[in-house]
Specification:
heterodimer, A: alpha+beta, 2 domains, six-stranded antiparallel beta sheet, four-stranded antiparallel beta sheet, 7 helices, B: Rossmann fold, Rossmann fold, five-stranded parallel beta sheet
């Protein structure tokens, strides 16, 4: 199986291409996780392992943690669940609530090569299958037409500004995927909130 | 299909395959029912102008009045094209002889190669073609039909399948059966054909060669493709980028496989299957995708005759109210809209139409409308800057619709000011008019829906060429 790129390394790669991701850090204990708390904002804890590609399905994601007590419990439970998946790491992230979720992805078609995908993200990906696909590298025209192709375009890009923002993001993600040795890419979800976006989950396969 | 080296190679020369001056038919036979008999008979029937050499290992004297030979090596005259219809196992040997005789192109009609698991045998065909550097079409194909030189290798008797008239649409089909049945349908349409090519297992000549050939072919205005897959994906795309800017390419992809989907680890890879990749590539590089055989024809004829579309505003003229309602639905379902016509057009229409005609879109000019009303309405709507294209619903069952109406439509529909399509639903009497209208170069559809789909395809391609994001 294609190896999963380490989360922090993946986030670093995104940053290099000007794609921002949500504040996150590996934590080695419940105490470290608690120190990740900032003000009143809740956090998320995730167990990450090569052996578990669907984190939320395997109960490896703990959402909306606000207190040290909640964090301690969640951390202990994650450690228990992740035991068979060793080696694993625990990642703490700021939790973004509300916002609209989209996916930008990449895959390699056996006939044509690297392709980039844009769609309605999060839990809706599989249900509505509302996505647009293009061969890499894409042009600005392609990026705009991908967005226009989506049935959900009014949801994920309600105005011109967000449309331009997403098109720009898509171009950068496509360039990153084209120039890298990645075979699969899921930036899902990317959450649009407060006039900006952040990649919340990053899954890159070499 | 045989594996080929992945390195880019030169395009195959199609000249002698398509328009030869001399043809040898290996496997030609007097025996009715044999493929070699039908091919030979067709060369005689369709009036091929070049020299014909029937070849059969058991030949004595002549076949259908042409001097027959036992081997191509006995002909001793220059031969442009050889059509091979002998059992698969005998093909490599026959090919070697052809190459030694210095022929310039080979079509292998015979089946019995990779499509039935005879991969090794097909590899030998490929190797011989490489060794002698000779263009080979097939195996397992119908070959070609060139309406101008009347080079016609189809083994389908002329009484079973009509031959289309001469025109500007070229049709390429991987499959022989889709190819021949669609050809038969094209014969029933008003538009004409330039070239037909059925390429079967594509051991040498493949999609990339054919796309390149038709892109540069002066007789081909519209390329119509039926494919089940492409062998050289990246080269196909690199070529398509240029070709779709030169000419419209209408494409139908059959055979959806899900290669790779089972190995997917991500959402993206599980969504982006092979069928989705083809669809994406078509959209990205300007292919006009047809979803079925009917759309291949709908699209072919609008691109063959009508000018590019500037926008999504479609004026509807009708001599039947219900069809106006259906047309409105069809437009909006296909991303098109009814326009607000200008005040000036309204004024002009009021002056020319009787009081009973309500001056709004869709413009119902009445069941008793004749040539005068159709002509006036078409004149006015052609001038209107708020209108991008016109759908003229012309129901010939009505008392006023006759050959004069047909004439008026032909006059407007061939002016190429704005795209014009006709909707005429009906049978014998209707068809007597619509075949003339379409033959003159105005596409006719039997429903508002099919006409709307054609206009939407025309607009999509016009936007692609102008880089307009829908």
């Amino acid at each position: 199986m294609a190896p999963l790129v380490d989360y922090e390394k993946a986030a670093g790669l995104l940053k290099k291409y000007g794609i921002s991701s949500v504040r996150s850090s590996y934590v080695g204990s419940a105490e470290e996780a608690s120190s990740f708390l900032k003000g009143d904002d809740p956090i998320v804890l995730k167990a990450i392992s090569q052996k578990a590609l669907h984190k939320s399905k395997s109960g490896l994601v703990k959402l909306n943690l606000r207190s040290e007590e909640e964090i301690r419990k969640a951390y202990a439970d994650l450690v228990k669940r992740a035991k068979p998946l060793r080696p694993y790491k625990i990642l703490a992230q700021s939790m973004l609530s509300g916002g609209l979720e989209m996916i930008i992805g990449g895959s390699v078609d056996p006939q044509f090569g690297k392709m980039v995908l844009l769609g309605l993200g999060g839990i809706y990906v599989e249900t509505f299958k509302d996505f647009a696909l293009r061969l890499c590298p894409i042009s600005t025209y392609d990026a705009a037409s991908m967005l226009r192709q989506l049935r959900s375009r009014k949801i994920i890009a309600p105005d011109n500004r967000s449309e331009n923002m997403i098109a720009g993001l898509l171009l950068r993600a496509s360039r990153m995927f084209t120039e890298s040795n990645l075979s699969e890419m899921d930036l899902n979800p990317i959450i649009l909130h407060d006039g900006r976006y952040d990649a919340v989950d990053i899954r890159l396969l070499e | 299909m045989a594996k080929k080296p992945s390195k880019t190679r030169k395009y195959v020369d199609m000249r002698y395959i398509m328009s030869p001056k001399s043809v040898a038919i290996i496997g030609a036979s007097e025996k009715a029912g044999k493929v070699g008999n039908a091919i030979m008979q067709n060369y005689v029937d369709v009036g091929f102008q070049g020299r014909i050499y029937p070849i059969n290992i058991n030949a004595e004297g002549s076949i259908m009045g042409y001097k027959a030979y036992r081997s191509i090596l006995d002909v001793k005259r220059s031969i442009d094209l050889v059509v091979i219809s002998v059992p698969a196992k005998a093909v490599p040997g026959v090919m070697e002889e052809c190459c030694k005789a210095g022929v310039k192109g080979i079509i292998i009609v015979s089946g019995g190669f990779a499509e039935v698991g005879e991969v090794e045998l097909q590899k030998r065909v490929y190797d011989i073609a490489q060794k002698y550097n000779i263009p080979v079409l097939g195996p397992n194909c119908l070959g070609v039909m060139d309406t101008r030189s009347r080079n016609d290798t189809l083994f389908l008797p002329t009484f079973k399948i009509d031959r289309p008239k001469i025109g500007g649409v070229s049709f390429v089909s991987q499959s022989g059966s889709v190819g021949s049945s669609t050809l038969d349908l094209i014969s029933g349409e008003g538009f004409g054909l330039a070239r037909f090519i059925s390429y079967g297992n594509a051991v040498v000549i493949d999609e990339v060669d054919l796309l390149n050939y038709l892109a540069h072919d002066k007789y081909t205005k519209v390329i119509v493709f039926y494919i089940e897959g492409v062998k050289r994906g990246r080269e196909f795309i690199e070529l398509a980028k240029k070709v779709t800017r030169l000419k419209p390419v209408v494409i139908l992809k059959g055979g959806v496989t899900e290669l790779g989907a089972s190995a997917a680890h991500s959402h993206t890879a599980s969504l982006a299957g092979s069928a989705q990749a083809y669809e994406a590539v078509f959209r990205q590089y300007g292919f006009i995708e047809a979803k079925n055989l009917e759309e291949l024809l709908y699209f072919a004829k609008v691109f063959d005759t009508q000018p590019p579309s500037r926008g999504n505003r479609v004026a509807v003229i009708t001599n039947g109210g219900g069809h106006g309602v259906l047309a409105t639905d069809a437009l909006y379902l296909n991303g098109l809209v009814l326009p607000d016509i200008t005040a000036e057009s309204k004024e002009r229409l009021r002056k020319t139409m009787p009081k009973i005609v309500n001056i709004k879109m869709p413009l119902d000019i009445g069941g008793d409308a004749g040539e005068e009303r159709f002509s006036a309405a078409l004149d006015i709507l052609e001038d209107d800057p708020n209108i991008d294209s016109i759908m003229s619903i012309t129901l010939f069952q009505t008392p006023g619709a006759d050959e004069k109406v047909a004439d008026a439509i032909i006059r407007h529909g061939t002016a190429r000011k704005k795209p014009l399509v006709v909707v005429s639903t009906g049978s014998t009497y209707t068809k007597s008019h619509t075949s003339i209208i379409e033959g003159a170069g105005v596409p006719v559809y039997d429903s508002p829906d099919s006409a709307a789909r054609a206009l939407a395809a025309l607009l999509w391609y016009s936007n692609y060429k102008n880089k307009v994001v829908e």
